[in-house]
Amino acid sequence: MYPEGQEILVVIEDCAWRERVVRILADEGFAVSAAAEGLAALRAIGAQRFALIIAAVRLPGSLDGMTTVHQARVKQPWLKALFIDDSLARRDRHYSETDDVITAPFERHELIGCTFELLQRGKTETADLSRRLRTKLRAS
């Protein structure tokens, strides 16, 4: 089990993908909670402290992944964010709320690597990565 305060919230609509991500992270010893949509994720954020949210960009209902993370950060400003998106959508999007993006489908080691990196990264490093990512996405 990882240190207290390193809990992860996974927000993915697709049940198979959500279960896969939860299983990979739990196998590594992380405390993981899951939600299928934005409103359920915000209820979880209101009830528990998380260090990282892993969210699909596309979520059902009135809250997409970006909006869910934005509202979650109102309640937990320290929250780091990893988005999961398909490669076609990634090229055209600007991720203002993200600390990192992983494209689906992805390998186990990619998810674990991104998760460890984000949890170890300090606030300044996170902001720098977000800025670099937005710059790269605008250039492509």
Instruction: Write the CATH homologous superfamily.
Output: Response regulator
CATH uppermost class: Alpha Beta
- For the report, how would you describe the main beta sheet? 5 strands, parallel
Structural class: alpha/beta
If you consult CATH, what is the topology? Rossmann fold
Strand ordering within the main sheet: 2-1-3-4-5
- Average pLDDT rating: 82
Strand content: 15-25%
Distance between the termini: 39 Å
Shape assignment: globular
Give unreliable regions as ranges.
123-127
Summarize the structure.
The chain is of the alpha/beta class and 140 residues long. The chain contains 6 helices and 5 strands, in the order βαβαβαβαβαα. It has one domain (8-139): 3-Layer(aba) Sandwich (Rossmann fold), CATH 3.40.50.
Describe, in plain words, how this protein is organized in 3D.
This protein is an alpha/beta fold. The protein has a single domain (8-139), classed as Response regulator (Rossmann fold). The chain is 50% helix and 18% strand. It has helices at residues 15-27, 38-47, 65-75, 87-92, 108-120, 123-139, and strands spanning 8-11, 32-35, 52-56, 80-86, 100-104. α2 packs parallel to α3. The longest helix has 17 residues, at 123-139. The N and C termini lie far apart (39 Å).
Can you lay out the helices and strands and say which pair or pack?
Elements: E1 8-11, H1 15-27, E2 32-35, H2 38-47, E3 52-56, H3 65-75, E4 80-86, H4 87-92, E5 100-104, H5 108-120, H6 123-139
Parallel strand pairs: 1-2, 1-3, 3-4, 4-5
Helix pairs in contact: 2-3
